[in-house]
Write a structure and sequence with these properties.
There is one protein chain. This protein is an alpha/beta fold. The chain contains seven helices and eleven strands. Strands 3-4-7-8-9-10-11 form a seven-stranded mixed sheet, with helices on both faces. A hairpin with a 2-residue loop joins β8 and β9. The model has no long low-confidence stretch (mean pLDDT 92).
């Protein structure tokens, strides 16, 4: 299920499309008074940045159906709409909690410009099983610019599975007490929107089948890379070559540090 909040501007046709694909938005998932969270994407000098245009309501604990348990959860706030108590509740009901911390480390100016700030509550790290960060998020969370050092710091905070991405450069993966470097396939970039979400979703999906985190991250990287030359919802239907690419990445993964 999707635990989310959409605004009073969310199109009916999108609600129908989601329902046809197994995601049903309930009345409790819709805000009466606020618009859907939206960002403006700014591409300048080869760099991609975001500006917050509108922000919906926070997601509430009451949106989780009573008594429900999850095999896995991906927690990926955009603009601070997930509270620490909500994350704790999700984690309590989940066998494997995977965090993309972007919404916990974003700060916004009055005109919506986004900047990164350290975690206000590092206790959230104790409530998860795995996480994905880009190199800038890793730096503000751990204080370390080097991905390997950032993952060593994450390990010291109690997390045993984590990924640091670097755009088109190699990813670094913490799996237990080892850190691996995984090459990222070169792709023609048509649209990078959602690439991180695809990496997270594909990783967790594969992990539920294999319980092998490094192999699962390789699958996520392969899926994310293949999505870059697609646009919008076409990214969901990835080609079968994702499996071949994932196997190749896994075979070439290099252990670069131990803990």
């Amino acid at each position: 299920m999707a635990l989310t909040k959409v605004g009073n501007d969310f199109p009916d046709e999108q609600t129908v499309w989601l329902a046809r694909n197994g995601i049903v938005l309930r009345a409790i998932d819709k805000s009466i008074s606020k618009p859907t969270t939206q960002f403006r994407i700014i591409n300048a000098a080869g760099e991609r940045s975001l500006a917050l245009v509108s922000r919906c309501e926070d997601i509430g604990v009451s949106q989780i159906p009573p008594g429900i348990k999850f095999d896995a959860s991906i927690v990926s706030p955009l603009a601070g709409e997930v509270s620490t108590p909500l994350l704790a509740e999700i984690s309590e009901r989940t066998d494997f909690t995977f965090l993309d911390p972007q919404g916990f480390v974003r700060s916004f100016t009055s005109n919506g410009t986004v900047s990164l700030v350290p975690l206000k509550d590092k206790g959230i790290i104790s409530k998860i099983d795995a996480m994905k960060m880009d190199k800038n998020e890793a730096r503000v969370i751990t204080g370390k610019s080097n991905p390997r050092e950032a993952l060593q710091r994450i390990y010291s905070l109690g997390v045993r599975k984590a990924v640091v991405t670097q755009g088109g450069n190699s990813c670094f993966v913490l799996d237990g007490t080892k850190i691996y470097e995984v090459a990222v396939p070169q792709s023609q970039v048509v649209d990078s929107t959602g690439a991180g979400d695809i990496l997270s979703g594909a990783t967790v999906s594969c992990y539920l089948r294999t319980r092998d985190f490094l192999r699962s991250v390789c699958f996520g990287i392969a899926a994310s890379s293949l999505s870059l030359n697609m646009i919008a919802l076409a990214k969901i239907d990835l080609p079968l070559t994702v499996d071949e690419s994932a196997k190749r990445l896994f075979s070439l993964a290099i252990p670069v540090a131990g803990i």
